[in-house]
Structure formats: structure tokens, C-alpha cells
Amino acid sequence: MESFDMIIIGSGHNALITGAYLTRAGRSVLVLEKNDRPGGFVRTEELTLPGFKHDVYAAAHPLFTTGPAYMELKDALEARGLTYLNTDLPTGVSMEDGATAVVPRSFEDFAAEAERLAPGDGTALAALFEQLNPHVNDVFGLFSMDLSGPEAAPVLQRLLHDGNGPGYSSFARSLFTTARHAVNEFKSPVMRSMLASWVTHLGRTPDEVGSGIWVPLTAMALMAGGMPIPSGGSEQLALALARLVKDQGGEIRTNSLVERIIVKNDRAVGVRTADGVVYAAKQAVVASTTPDQLYLTLLADSDVPPALRTQAKQFRYGRGCVQIHLALAEPPRWPDARFNRVGQPHLTDGLDGFTLAIAQGTADLLPAKPTFTVDCPTNLDASRAPAGKAIMRIQVLEVPVRPRGDAAGRIDVGDGTWTPALTERFTERVLEVAGKHIPNIPSAVIGKYVVTPDTIARFNPNAGPGDPYGGAHDLAQSYLFRPLPGQPGHRSAIPNVYMLGAATWPGHGVNGGSGYIVAQQLLSQ
């Protein structure tokens, strides 16, 4: 039986970050991945036509490039081929009536853009940021801390209490506001749409309690990080991390699905794969998974507190995502030339229309008028498509994982399975909306590939029925309640079994936070 200090189950970017730190410290590490290559949702493929390189799932990495893992591993990753390309206009919005706006990385330019939209909105933008400014360092610092640990305790105390009495701070109050409330002071509907829509990329919705704080946080994060993409595609991050792990002595084995974590005397001692291969773990097992998989499958044979197992059964997944990958005969012809530099803009008919589409998705109906983001990586990286051609990704969030009807009453959803016919009809609807913003869509489309919720579910079990964010992010499953109320952190009920990934703080997306947190916990022992 082969033996390693640490065994890591799964090889998403967080798992690879943990592996990079552990191997750098001299630990022997084995990473086991069920798919054909490491990286999880960080994957690039020629999905449509030869020479067109699409990011199948995750694309830009603004939170990762501003986090501690990148800062500390940057030189090693760059030496292994990772190079980021960025823009000074991370996001924006295109309205159906032709109005547009952008978010520049410079606050002065952003305030000027707000003022252009409506006199006084530049002042409102400054006020939005000023409310958060006293807390911003503490807030972003928490993204690299286990919220249940002693390091985070004084930070949480400062944030929740103002120090002037027994009451709670204005920041604590903001945790229970909605995104719609957060943008109420803006006169421009364009500005309100541009800022409030981004909370859906954090697993929230604009009218959901708890979404309000993410309006200024997301804007600040995008201004700080931009919308960086790896040259050559998102998977270049996974490739560089995997090379680093291997160069430092670690092993990565693909096509290896872990079936059980073996526990003896209340400690993990190894894992068993679906092929019956057993590997011994001398120090710890790290699982990139969700709590239901951990406690109901990987630790099914172990002595876990019944209450925790019950909570794992109650873990909820959110709605699904449809991603439409397009090969284009020419770059998109934006009426606003600035959008040739915008990283990932929203296309919408306004905040009310956006929330109506979300409400329809919540009711398990295909939205009658979807609103979504688009990104065109070839604006920054011409190597992603043949000369003169382009790629585009349309990301439609908050769609039903299994629709039971169509809000417009025009698409027969059958039994809710994302069949080729259903996928094609919905794709046609999305492209029709896109054409109202981009005149040469769909005429420039020469190839397409559509990722649906069931595609996501089959590829990654952490998505449950098709939730790309690894579990619902409402208040009941956020912060100290993530992944479970009985496990408010990355340490599981088995002392030497750790969790990381989207189901743990700081959540989904390419941020590297949980990988960094678990690495520090393991190396501090």
C-alpha cells in the first residue's frame, strides 16, 4: 500500500493551492482526481471549432489575483507558464434601449461615469463606498481566514460592533439589506442595473436579504482586480499549479474516484477509490467536496454525530446556469466602442426585468426574457481564436436545473430534462436578446456549444443537480453557517479531515481562499 503524508480528494484550483503549499513545505502529497485531468471547473477546450479555445466553466480570476495565494505563489506560477491579461474596464451594462455604462478601475473615472448618467450619482457612489471604507481591510482580510477560527474572532467583533456601546455597527446592519436597497440612492436606472446585477455572481439575488453588502464589495473587488484572464485560457492556472505540485515532489493521479475515507480510532488513515485501490494517509485527508458528499458518502462508514449527518442531508443547492459558447466570424460589433475593452458586461432591460427573470427561474420556469453577462476573451488574447475571428461566452444564471414550464409559454420543456431540442430553443431565445445589444449577433456565429445544468452536474458532483456555486448562498448557508451550522469552518467532525472548495468559506469562484486557509491550518500543526 502506498503511503503519503497528505491525501487530497479532488483537484480544483483550491485543492491544488493546498497541494502547492504542502509540497513546498516538504510534505508528501497525493492528489486524486476523478476526471481526465486536474483543474475542476478551471478548464479550457476547443468546444466549437478547431482553434477556438473556450473556458468551459470558470473564466476570469479577479479575486484570485488580489488574494494571498497568488501573491505568495506568483513567481513560481509564472515560471510555469501562467501569465494574466487584464483590462481597465472590468464590467459594464448594456440596456435594451441602447443606454450603456462602464465600471472603470479608477474611482475618479467611475464617479465621472456615474455623474454622466445622472447628476448627483457620482456623489451617491462616493457615499456608497465611504460607508464601507472603514471596514474594507477587515472584510477583505476575512477572505483568507477561517471564520470560525481564533484569528477571525477579533475581526468579526470589530465589524459587528462599533465600540461605542452594546449595539451593533452600521456594517452589521448592511449584512441584512438587499442589493435593491443598496442602489436606491442612484437616480440612473442604468447605474442601478449595473451595480445590483453583479450580486448574482456571488450566489445572491437583488431582492434577497443579505445581498446588499455585496454591491459595494463586488464593485471594489472589480476595481482592485480588474477582470484578469490567463493567457491561453483559464486552465493555464490549473496547469501551472499542477506543475508546481509535481515539481515539488507531489503526485497527481487522474481517473481516480475516491469512494471512501477510511477512519480508525476517530482519525482518517487513508482513502479507497472506486477501483478498490487503498492509499494510506499518515497525517491528514483534505476533501474538495460538499458536506452532503462528505458525511453521507465519503464518511458514510464513520462515526459522525447524528445531528451533523442530519444537517448534511438538509444541505441545499441553488439554481442552475446555462453557458453558451460561441465561435464568431468576426469580433462583436458593440455600438459603444468602449465595450471592446469591457471584461464582462451585463445585457439587460433593467433591474426590474432582471429580477423578474430571476423570479421566473425561482419558480422553475424558463425566463421569458433572460438577462446575462457576456465576455469576449479574444479582446485581450488573440491566441484564443484564428486570426480575425473571436470567441464569446454568454452566462445565464438563476435558471432552473429542471424547468417545469416556460414563462413565455412558447417552449415545451417536456419532463424538464435539458434535451438538445430544449437547449436549442432556449439558446435561440438568449441569442435573440443578445442581438438587441450586439448588431452582428447571431449573424456572426459560426459555431456554438451550450453547457446546461445537467452538463455541470455530470462533470462535477460538487454542483449537485447543476448548481455551479456548490450550494445555495442564502443567509442560512452563508458565513458561519457554511458549510453547515454544526461545522462552521474547514475542519470536519473527524479531526484530521479537512474540507475546501465552493461549499466552504469564502465560497465559489476562482478565489483560492479555502485552499489557502486549509494549507495554513495544516502547516501550523
Automatic annotation (TrEMBL):
Highest taxon, organism lineage: Bacteria
Family matches, as Pfam families: Amino_oxidase
Complex and partners: Interacts with COX5B; this interaction may contribute to localize PYROXD2 to the inner face of the inner mitochondrial membrane.
Transmembrane segments: none
Gene source species: Paenibacillus rhizovicinus
Protein name as annotated: Pyridine nucleotide-disulfide oxidoreductase domain-containing protein 2
Domain Amine oxidase: 16-349
Role description: Probable oxidoreductase that may play a role as regulator of mitochondrial function.
MF (Gene Ontology): oxidoreductase activity
Signal peptide (from-to): none
